[in-house]
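Inverse folding, one chain.
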């Protein structure tokens, strides 16, 4: 570890304690994510970390969101979880044509946590390291105006930014129709520069090749030019962690 990073981590731990919390149980990889998200500023990283602890305690008091809590969101089978990319990142596919704006925002927010937690956990080897990332694929093919959910998209990205810092490796948006451009312009206004830099709207052959190379054809579903079968999120069984 670089000396400057080591100093920043030490300062961050002290700042967390001053805010009345503790970093006990959280390793350097986890804390470093918060530092990177706040441009290596220990005080800002500490504030973000403490806010995350409080949010996690309130949103996920049992440590996880069970499928029974988000059945309405799981039922359409709109989220797919593939195996790991060439860089070891789990690949999550969102079929926007199967999504409709939720009438129950509390359940929707729990669903976002459930899918992000499960996607990240699918990359664990025996135990969580703390620096795991994911690749997201947002497929807009066959969407209609009824599927548009700017609020849902903003919620998903804001959760990633505020509560899953540095978890997103890349997000690829496929088949964006012309009528969705204005929606995306609205959504992107809520995203941080660092998040926007990780998003690729695939519109040409070079971008498609980049997309395929980043994911890997062994993991990419057949309909996108890969060799893998799609697996719905609820059909993926994770091995128990060695805690």
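Residues assigned per position:
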């Amino acid at each position: 570890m670089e000396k400057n990073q080591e100093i920043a981590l030490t300062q961050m731990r002290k700042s967390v304690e001053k805010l009345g919390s503790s970093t006990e149980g959280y390793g350097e990889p986890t804390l470093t994510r918060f530092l990177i998200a706040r441009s290596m500023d220990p005080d800002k990283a500490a504030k973000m970390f403490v806010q995350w602890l409080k949010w996690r305690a309130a949103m996920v008091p049992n440590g996880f969101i069970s499928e029974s809590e988000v059945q309405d969101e799981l039922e359409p089978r709109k989220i797919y979880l593939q195996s790991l990319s060439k860089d070891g990142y789990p690949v999550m596919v969102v079929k926007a044509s199967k999504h409709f704006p939720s009438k129950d925002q509390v359940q929707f927010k729990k669903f976002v946590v459930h899918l992000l937690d499960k996607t990240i956990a699918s990359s664990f080897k025996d135990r969580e390291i703390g620096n795991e990332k994911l690749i997201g694929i947002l497929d807009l093919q066959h969407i209609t105006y009824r599927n548009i959910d700017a609020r849902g998209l903003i919620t998903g990205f804001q959760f990633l930014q505020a509560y899953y810092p540095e978890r997103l490796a890349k997000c690829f948006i496929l088949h964006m129709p012309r009528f969705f451009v204005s929606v995306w312009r609205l959504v992107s206004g809520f995203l941080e520069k660092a998040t926007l830099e990780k998003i690729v709207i695939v519109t040409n052959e070079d971008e498609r090749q980049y997309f395929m190379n980043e994911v890997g054809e062994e993991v990419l579903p057949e309909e996108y030019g890969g060799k893998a079968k799609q697996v719905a999120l609820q059909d993926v069984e994770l091995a128990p962690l060695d805690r």
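The beta strands are 79-84, 90-95, 134-139, 168-174, 199-201. The chain has a mean pLDDT of 95.
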